[in-house]
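Hey,

Quick one before I head out. I ran the complex with FE2/S2 (inorganic) cluster overnight. Inputs first:
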Amino acid sequence: MSAVVTEARRWARTYPWLGEDPVPTEPCISEDIYHKEVEKVFKKVWLHVGRDNELPEPGCYKLKRLDFASTTVLLIRGKDGEIRAFHNTCSHRGNTVVVPQGEWDNFGQKAAFTCRFHAWTYNDKGELIGAQEETGMPPCFRKSENGLTPINCDTWEGFIFINLDENPPVGLHEYLGEMGNHFSGFPYSEIDHNFTYYTYLNCNWKVGLDAFAEAYHVNTIHAGSFPGTFSTGLQMIKLLGDHRTTAVCFNPPKDAPAVAALAQTKARGSLVNNVRETILPPTLNDEKRDDYAFELSVFFPNWLLHVSEGIWFTHQFWPIGYDRCLWEGKYNVMEPTTNSEKWALEHAMVLQRNAWLEDTATMEGTFFALNSGSKKHMNLHDEEILVRHGYHVLEKYLNTEGP
Ligand code: FES
Ligand SMILES: [Fe+2]
């Protein structure tokens, strides 16, 4: 097992252009900055909104509510296999076309999408195919000009992204750039047995995101779920354009409790199970460290993708206001095939749930304290350089000309 190197301030030396000054807290508590983020970031860049296997067949749809933009995205897989995105807004008088049920994402399948107000009907390509008593519409009315309003949509490695800008300056693959190359080739689709947690948090979206973008907290916050398991020191940090990624490594192993040790031998996917042949593409763990645990990454602005042997998981923080956000945590493993594997998966899920509860437990408290205004700056540790990079990129966007 190779030792984790923790040479003092090594990341500041590696990335001197990021500086070492304290980082202002204002972006986390300012309503004015929140509105600028919405206009200059969230309505401009490519945002992850789903996975292609959520829409397995023609007519399958997903509703994704985006509070920051006061819209709901309607994703539809067409009969031609394409996934398209639309504003879920009727061309007649603007009613919601597919009525959401409950507070979170909706899924379903329809042959056609009929607005319940006056029964205007759209097909799988968002085209208006029926308007009730159409002969009563004025001569200037054209069905062909009144489909659902499209949203730019593209996929990468089976992940669905949208861009709310009518004319995005770059396509998805250019936007992802080297980050897309770094994470390409992992068998995401083969590891598709999943569970999701979500909750609404009374905190700024960045307070939540930042808590997942460092390992400096693992010895304290995760003393219950993963005691001494992971190193606080990061390895192989790569700042790739607006995005960032790093490896989190294991501490030297020590004897696990009997139940945990047994579960680790049976699990087909667990954060602490690293016994199989590697399935990682060569870009991940390119130093071939034998203590490699998992990749921790942030796709700007709000999506974290983590991959490891036999598992991948994501976190996403959706802004609702400067003081509120939605957190979604999704965990994907290989489907268990035996009862012992099912039991081991339950063990892994409970462990992960506990860890995520530990993570999310700090967020509202942090925001409440920051919102006092009593601290103008955060004093970041060298191992929190991904957090520093996040504010650096955000500042670049906020300082751009235009709305
Ligand atoms: S608002 Fe949709 S049919 Fe009238
Ligand atoms: Fe954590």
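Residues 45 and 170 are 9 Å apart (CA to CA).

Talk tomorrow,
K.
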